[in-house]
Amino acid sequence: MAAPDVPSLSPDIRPCCPATLCGAFFCATPGHERGAATRATRTSMAGSKLEMNQDREDHAMSAIDLLLHLDHLDLSVAAPRAAIALAQRLGARLDALYVADLPATAFSLPEAVPVQLEETQRRVAEAQTHDAEWQGVLSARGLAGTWRVTQGDTVQTVSQAASGYDLLVMERSQQRSDAPVGFGSVSRCVFACGRPVLVVPDVSPVAGIGSRVLVAWNGSRESALALAAALPVLQRADEVQVLDGSEMNADMLPVLPPPGLVDWLQRHGIRATVETFTTGPSHAAGPAVLDAAHERGTDLIVMGAWSRSRLAQMVLGGTTRHLFMHGDVPMLVAH
């Protein structure tokens, strides 16, 4: 059988590009115009790729999610101010979570359960009316986020909610002594949430946060976690001071890749001044860290929390316990 005749292609009608680029496999384009069109298409594609890469970089830089826990509805106090200031510095999303506390002990007396539930529902309904206020606060500062309201055991609820965020912000009252230091809601969330926590003392003035940072480094696992969590803040800080007290853990396996702290800071683009920190007895470290923060005008302390057990810190004293009890500077901690 003779082969069917195949019409010849005109010189001006030749394959030039895939259908995904021009809409058809064949383009009727004169040779010199076709070349120019191809170059223009490649240039356009290159430009689009650059824009896409830039968009990805910008998105990655701002893809930080903060969660602010609220146990009251006053947005003018220390913790909301600190969370807003940090979100502005990091270009982060900021969600607020109000929890109407309903602990398991509320059900220990059956006759009190209806009263407890009614009061909790009232608080939930009241909190839900503050959504517009929160959105107004964020909008005025060029931020985005949501207002979340729920009920339940505070520690369990906050710890579960925080699992999807990069950082949890909580306020710690210096006036209220409803639980021993280390066993209150903030400390229990530090242990339970698996996320770094910005602990804001209610007496903190919070003029700003993350500009002048003091890192209390002792070479422990907890301080390494805090250092890594604070990386976005440290990279944007105007001044970073490191108090290196790792000599106390010199017999332990180093928690940073060799050669150690100074190299790690340099490789992560952090300009820091490192000072050897010796205070004598471990219980003296807390007051010394706080004094150093005050002397340097520090607006944020970065440190590991509860490197020793909470019971040991209650009996023997410790840095975390002292700063939680007496500190007036926000602390970014991790455990």
Automatic annotation (TrEMBL):
InterPro entries: Universal_stress_UspA, UspA
Domain spans labelled UspA: 70-201, 212-334
Signal peptide interval: none
Pfam families in alphabetical order: Usp
Superkingdom classification of source: Bacteria
PANTHER family in UniProt: STRESS RESPONSE PROTEIN NHAX, UNIVERSAL STRESS PROTEIN HP_0031
Stated family: Belongs to the universal stress protein A family.
The protein, known as: UspA domain-containing protein
Source organism (scientific name): Dyella jiangningensis
